[in-house]
Amino acid sequence: GVDAVTTSQSEADQKRGREIRQREERIGKLQREFDKLQGQCLDGDRRACERQVAVRAQMDTLLPTVPYEPR
After folding, report:
1. Interval 38-49: pLDDT, tens
2. Are 30 and 58 in contact (CB under 8 A)?
3. Which strand (E) or helix (H) includes residue 12?
4. How far is CA 30 from its chain centroid?
């Protein structure tokens, strides 16, 4: 049978995978928001420019927590 160590390792791997996927989804949302704000910023919306800087900072904080996977 499967021992408890293997099961707990499998569960830990699944949890880690889930956490990585959630961070990837968050980065995707931030990227879309960043792109939208960039357009508004280029149209002269100063607040959008400021918000864009804040969104970029959030992305820069999250990116190192997602493993790089070459495509």
Report:
1. 999 999 999 999
2. yes
3. helix 4-42
4. 7
Which residues are CB-neighbours of 57 under 8 A, at least 6 positions away? none
* 53 phi, psi to nearest 5 deg: -60, -40
Give the pLDDT of residue 2.
Answer: 57
With tokens 């149209």, the residue in question is: 43
Block means of pLDDT (10 residues each) for the chain, length 71 residues?
A: 73 92 95 97 97 97 85 74
Cβ contact 23:66 at 8 Å: yes
Q: How far apart are CA 30 and CA 36, in angstroms?
A: 10
CA 70 to the chain's CA centroid: 16
pTM: 0.77
What type of residue sits at position 60?
A: D
Inter-axis angle of helices 46-62 and 4-42, to 10 degrees? 160
